[in-house]
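A protein record in our archive is deliberately plain, so that people and models can read it alike. The tokens are whole numbers drawn from a learned vocabulary of local backbone shapes. For reference, a complete record is included directly beneath this paragraph.
>
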Amino acid sequence: MKSRHLLPLILTITALPLAAAPRLVVSTPSLAPESKVDVIFDQPMVGQEALGKTVENKLIVTIPALPAKLF
């Protein structure tokens, strides 16, 4: 039942008043501990100076907390 961990992520993303439409890409056919989850936005979610840099995740909240970085 690892997919239940994805639900708060999806709900958080859809609840944010964003102009960009997010896409969710999972690296494995089904959600597993080794899965890599990419949330891709159509527009930049940060300022021009932060584009292309990896930063701590302060945009997306998951419950339970999952370690993540934003790029």
About this structure: Residues 2 and 33 are 8 Å apart (CA to CA). The beta strands are 23-26, 37-40, 55-56, 69-70. The longest strand covers residues 23-26. The mean pLDDT is 76.
